[in-house]
Amino acid sequence: xxxxxxxxxxxxxxxxxxxxxxxxxxxxxxxxxxxxxxxxxxxxxxxxxxxxxxxxxxxxxxxxxxxxxxxxxxxxxxxxxxxxxxxxxxxxxxxxxxxxxxxxxxxxxxxxxxxxxxxxxxxxxxxxxxxxxxxxxxxxxxxxxxxxxxxx
Length: 152
What we know:
Blueprint: E1 2-4, E2 11-13, H1 25-38, H2 40-49, H3 51-66, H4 70-79, E3 97-102, E4 107-113, H5 114-126, H6 129-139, E5 147-148
Antiparallel strand pairs: 1-2, 3-4, 4-5
Helix pairs in contact: 5-6
């Protein structure tokens, strides 16, 4: 059944609308994008005042996307000795932790530092991805670090 968006007047499927809303997700996304651009100080202030909420949102997203709970994430990070899987630098305030994953799959590969994550992404885009992945996998300590979300 089609529903008409109050903002763009386009008929769209029911799934294109957030629950209980009359404005489609695309229009809502555009409106929020404009608001964020016009009010950067308010957004930064909200993030600073609501650190506990941003943490909850992050955990919810990780659980939905990869099936990772805070406990399982901590367990995997402990198995990696709180270090980057590629360069083995210890994570800290200066060495930022990234969750390495494949975007099109629900596949979590472990934790990388920001630099290794960027380098790997660039190598996959422009270089020899097979060699890059092989080198990365050889550096990772223990195949049990890899975590696959079970199909529901």
